[in-house]
Amino acid sequence: MNIMPVEAELMAIHIGLMPVLDNDNIHQILVITDAISAAKYILESRPNPLQKAVLPIVSKLKSFLKKDNRNHVHFWQCPKKAKWPRHILVDDQVKASANIPTLPNKNSYLFSRKKECDGAFTKWQKAFSTEKRKGQLFLDFEDNKQRVIKPTYTKGRSY
To answer: Out of 11, 116, 132, 149, which could bridge 141 as a Cys pair, Cβ 3.0 to 4.6 Å?
Structure first.
């Protein structure tokens, strides 16, 4: 599973918030995180690449906040270098845990984008591998061992 660090932080916040948001006796929630940049995606109103991961959290938060005018959610930044004992305890427990989170599928925006880009690139390589499609306006680049260098879209590479 290819999950970016920001997505992992969002998933952790999601997992922590879900049982609390459904409890009618809780009115104030304090989220303490060392990844406040991930938490900002939850509060951002404009479209962003992590929308698919954020939408379930936002919809639950919205219903929690509408339920009662006493309901509040606060996000606090606690950097790792602060060495807050509770943060260290949770971090150690998570790292020692043998539980592997099960996710429905590889549906993150960044993974989907990479998969789509790789698919288009593979089609492009196949299309230009035959002389018929390539025509005569393209040259094959060769490495030191006279092997044809495959095209790539990486900056500074062939094509």
So the answer is: 149
